[in-house]
Amino acid sequence: MTRMLPTPDTPLKIGTRGSPLALAQAYETRTRLVQAFDLTQDCFEIIVIKVTGDAIQDRPLKDIGGKGLFTREIEEDLLSEKIDIAVHSMKDMPTIQPEGLILDTYLPREDVRDAFVSPRLSALTDLAQGAVVGTSSLRRKAQLLHHRPDLQVVEFRGNVQTRLKKLSEGVAECTFLATAGLNRLNMAEVPATPVATTDMLPAVAQGAIGIERRINDEATAALLAAIHDTPTGQRLAAERAFLLTLDGSCETPIAGLAELDGDQLHLRGEVLRPDGSQAIAGHRTGPIADGAQMGTDLAQELLSRAGAGFFDWHT
């Protein structure tokens, strides 16, 4: 059977959030498909979809519903065939997709590290006692307070540009952004210093772009197979199994990172109390094929060590 390629008259519709970073990720997806099949850009239509997580900027994510806030409306349009594929930041993605959808295509992963961003300082160790740090990430907040309980952490919602504006206005001394996002936006001018993963373990799937499709859309599956990055998929299989077993959401401070070394996969994971008062970490190493099982096993170990009530907001 001849593979049907998109044309300017029947373009492949790519759904995305409207932030500059989300659009950069959609453009990267389009570019890779254009190059893989020697097509033109007008064979693809990028459709911006407003999501609840972007519409509500004045409250913490935990107060308005967690990770699905950045995906729900996009997935509804995918299911109703208003779009053909959806491009997502994988660290925003729930671990279970709605019935009828599948997430099995990943682009090559970018830098996984967090970046320390400050117009005046170059590292976390430069922060004065009691300094104000801005972040909307519960993981980053818990990790910061675990190492520096003296810090004051304030809510810092918004896209990269919004957060940088708040920083320039003196709302906080520093903030943290994903190095991958800064790289994808070509924002080399931002005063950012990558933080070693041994100092701040990143969010599960940080730096990875995932492409979601309808599970019965075989023509689109064939297109996407040409741009899938297998090593990224192998790493995310372990990390997302870890997250799934922990039932992770934006309300839970969880960090995890899988790295490949030959035919071996090394997985590190961490869970923290929301106030940073306690952190429990562990690791697994084994064959790449066992990555998902290692993720599950590591999560079960950390859960057993944490005990009941570990993630309570009132502890």
What does this protein look like?
The protein is an alpha/beta fold. The chain has three domains: 12-108 and 206-228, 3-Layer(aba) Sandwich (D-Maltodextrin-Binding Protein, domain 2), CATH 3.40.190; 114-194, D-Maltodextrin-Binding Protein, domain 2, CATH 3.40.190.10; 240-306, Double Stranded RNA Binding Domain (2-Layer Sandwich). It has helices spanning 20-37, 52-55, 61-64, 72-79, 138-147, 160-168, 179-184, 218-225, 230-246, 291-306, and strands at 12-16, 44-48, 85-89, 101-106, 114-117, 132-134, 152-154, 174-178, 192-194, 209-214, 254-261, 264-272, 279-287. A five-stranded mixed β-sheet has the order 2-1-3-10-4, sandwiched between helices. Strand 1 (12-16), helix 1 (20-37) and strand 2 (44-48) form a beta-alpha-beta unit. Helix 9 (230-246) packs parallel to helix 10. It is globular. The chain starts with 11 loop residues before the first strand and ends in a 9-residue tail after the last helix.
Q: How many structural domains are formed by the residues?
A: 3
Helix percentage range: 25-40%
H/E topology pattern? EHEHHHEEEEHEHEHEEHHEEEH
Mean pLDDT: 91
> Would you identify the regions where 5 or more consecutive residues have pLDDT less than 50?
none
Q: How large is the count of helical segments?
A: 10
Beta-strand residue fraction:
15-25%
